[in-house]
Amino acid sequence: MFKKARLKLTAWYLLIIMSISITFSLVIARAVSAEVDRFERVQRIRIENRLRDNDNFFSPNTPPPPTQFRIIFENPELLAETKRRVFVMLGLINAGIFLVAGGLGYMLAGRTLRPIQIMMDEQNRFISDASHELRTPLTSLKSAFEVYLRSKDNTLKEAKTLIGESVEEVNKLQLLSDSLLQLAQYQKPNGQMRFENIRLSEVVRDAVRKIKPVAMQKQVALGYGESELRVNGNRFGLTDLLVILLDNAVKYSPSGAKVEVTAKKTDHHVLVSVKDEGIGIAREDMKHIFSRFYRADSARSRKDTGGYGLGLAIAKKIAETHGGTIEVKSTPGKGSEFTVRLPLFSRNSA
Ligand code: ADP
Fold first, then answer.
1. CA 47 to CA 69: how far, in whole Å?
2. 80 with 32: CB under 8 angstroms?
3. Segment (H or E) for 337
4. How many helices, marked H, and strands, marked E, lie in the chain?
């Protein structure tokens, strides 16, 4: 499909270039032809006048007309030949332009379409990953229902167990669809997000409040300090970002561990860090964890995490939408620290 689009675009480039080139060539050909005709006419009139004015034009005392005029008059096909040569030259120039423009157009069409192709490949990969993730819980639900329907003497207890398991699967599906929606929302162009001057402490407090029940259940202590730092950002977006980081920190920490949120200022940025004492991330996983649907094996093998590998991809998107970045430092077995760098609020950025 990409090849077809590339050829089509090349054809359009060629059509435009060749229309301009052929139009110019026709104008030049007409101008040259008119000029040659005018030259021939003027010279003919001049010589005829001279013949009329001077009967002795060809007398031995009068110099004969210049050689080039004589050649022209003696060989009228020379003018036609000159015109033909100009047409052939213009034709050759156009053929050259056609070849060069075709080659360059093909190259340019490839360059123009490459980002679109990359985007389409990424989108296709995303759709196939999302469908795969959706299919797994749906298949398990379907087979559980089929088995139940096939059995004739089902007890109420069995029915309750089935419903309980189904609700669990439905919850997973809901989590996945919420994450997909969230990702789509933050993939929209920046202009669609309202930015304001916000106090970072308020965002941290909101995020901590949302995660507190899970942290308490797992007996993970959450610590954060107050600060006066301000950023130019979207309150909901930044809260979502911190919720993702805190949720991971709690998810991948053992019971009794501590998770700490800190904020500090550099020259032009605010650095917000979420540090945990959890399982840490293996070196080979570090470069992939921000990719969509990536889960490290250590996370995959843990039943309690229940994630789809979308959280950090969303967090990264939110940081980028704010003109910021997100980085991670981690030591397997000791813990991880995720740092978000956001532009400091300034009057100019408001
Ligand atoms: P998930 O929903 O699976 O947690 P994320 O995109 O949030 O998806 O994270 C991707 C992967 O990065 C996780 O599967 C996990 O392996 C790793 N990870 C993220 N945060 C942490 C953390 N605080 N400690 C250890 N591993 C983490």
1. 9
2. no
3. strand 335-343
4. 9, 7
272-281, pLDDT tens digit by residue? Answer: 999 999 999 9
Query: Ligand 1 within 6 A of 247 CB?
Result: no
**Residue 310, ligand 1, Cβ within 6 A:** yes
Residue burial 218-239, b: 16+ Cβ < 10 Å; e: rest: eebebebeebebbbbbbeebbb
CA distance 320 to 127: 22
248 CB near ligand 1 (under 6 Å):
yes
Contacts made by residues 108-113, CB under 8 angstroms, sequence distance 24+: 108/13, 109/6, 109/7, 109/9, 109/10, 109/13, 110/6, 112/9, 113/2, 113/5, 113/6, 113/9
Q: What is the per-residue pLDDT for 240?
A: 95
**Ligand 1 close to Cβ of residue 249 (< 6 A):** yes
One-letter identity of residue 150? R
Return the best residue to mutate from 289, 298, 337 for the ligand 1 pocket (most ligand atoms within 8 A of CB).
289
Residue pLDDT, tens place only, 27-77: 999 999 898 888 888 888 887 787 777 655 555 565 656 665 555 655 667
Q: How far is the CA of 292 from the centre of ligand 1 (A)?
A: 11
Q: Is 137 in the pocket of ligand 1 (CB under 6 A)?
A: no
Total-model pTM: 0.73
307 touches ligand 1 (CB under 6 Å): yes
Measuring from atom 16 of ligand 1, which residue has the nearest CA? 296
The answer to whether the CB of 48 falls within 8 A of the CB of 65 is no
Say if CB 241 and CB 183 are below 8 A apart.
no
